[in-house]
């Protein structure tokens, strides 16, 4: 393998400068601004501000709506992660068994990842629309009255399906790559020893997929907590009755609609700490079960 050697120390930093600048301007600086604003009480235009210490955080703990958003986010994140990874793994295993039609099948499954989250939300909104949607019509035939505008459970199902559908393609690509990296000789040896398809999957294939599964677990939890804002905004807008008001959407609603900048900043800080804590826990404890 060829190794690149830089004669001076300036060139490596110049090559890193664009990425460092993007990280500083769009990630580090906004994070520090959010932390600063979380200790202030500001007007809608940011002209006048008052230092209030931990008052914004104490108000969150006393808010029934915010505590509800914590519960909704937990249910939503777990549901999206399990559904998107589970379906993607099943599709990847199916592709891994195919030989002649593997490439066209893979191409068709990857297409949804190119769809913007807002477009995905609108697409599923029309599919589940109680008036013109095809799925409510089919559900009505079997006696189920679907209406995500009034029913909390229906609304949660809608946003989970819309969010998971968008992420399945991403998970699918990594699972296919992981399956193809597993030596075929291991599964062939197990088959010769009499192990059936199910046992070969759980005893050989899935354990060897653990690095890929661990990586996707981290990515999908972050996706569910941050990148699903557009899906929520284009489908339910947090309703009905706060049933789909996840934390990232509440940050937007309180800050941009309610103009409560201090509370919105405090919520974003709490959300950031939760995601960081979950990531640390996964790397600290879950990774121990990963077989590299």
Automatic annotation (TrEMBL):
Gene3D superfamilies, from UniProt? MetI-like (1.10.3720.10)
Q: Where is the ABC transmembrane type-1 domain?
A: 70-282
Q: Where in the cell is it found?
A: Cell inner membrane; Cell membrane
Record field: transmembrane: 12-32, 74-95, 107-128, 206-226, 265-286
Per UniProt, what is the membrane topology? Multi-pass membrane protein
Q: How does it assemble?
A: The complex is composed of two ATP-binding proteins (UgpC), two transmembrane proteins (UgpA and UgpE) and a solute-binding protein (UgpB).
What is the official name of this protein in its record?
sn-glycerol-3-phosphate transport system permease protein UgpA
Lineage start: Bacteria, Pseudomonadati, Pseudomonadota, Alphaproteobacteria, Rhodobacterales
Source gene? ugpA
């Amino acid at each position: 393998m060829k190794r690149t050697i830089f004669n001076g120390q300036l060139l490596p930093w110049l090559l890193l400068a664009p990425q460092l600048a993007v990280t500083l301007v769009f990630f580090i600086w906004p994070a520090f601004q959010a932390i600063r604003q979380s200790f202030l009480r500001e007007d809608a235009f940011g002209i006048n501000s008052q230092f209030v210490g931990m008052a914004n955080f104490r108000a969150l703990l006393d808010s029934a709506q915010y505590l509800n958003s914590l519960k909704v986010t937990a249910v939503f994140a777990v549901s999206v992660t399990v559904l998107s990874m589970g379906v993607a793994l099943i599709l990847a295993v199916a592709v891994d068994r195919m030989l002649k039609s593997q490439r066209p099948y893979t191409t068709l499954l990857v297409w949804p990842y190119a769809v913007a989250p807002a477009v995905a939300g609108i697409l599923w909104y029309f599919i589940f629309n109680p008036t013109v949607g095809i799925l409510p019509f089919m559900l009505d035939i079997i006696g189920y009255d679907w209406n995500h505008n009034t029913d909390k459970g229906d609304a949660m199902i809608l946003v989970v399906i819309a969010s998971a559908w968008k992420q399945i393609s991403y998970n699918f690509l990594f699972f296919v790559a992981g399956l193809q990296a597993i030596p075929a000789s291991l599964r062939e040896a197990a088959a010769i020893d009499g192990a059936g398809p199910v046992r070969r999957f759980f005893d050989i294939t899935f354990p060897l997929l653990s690095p890929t599964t661990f990586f996707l677990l981290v990515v999908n939890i972050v996706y569910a907590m941050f990148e699903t804002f557009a899906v929520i905004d284009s489908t339910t807008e947090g309703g009905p009755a706060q049933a789909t008001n996840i934390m990232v959407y509440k940050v937007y609603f309180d800050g941009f609609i309610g103009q409560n900048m201090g509370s919105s900043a405090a919520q974003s800080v709490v959300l950031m700490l939760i995601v960081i804590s979950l990531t640390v826990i996964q790397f600290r404890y879950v990774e121990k079960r990963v077989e590299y």
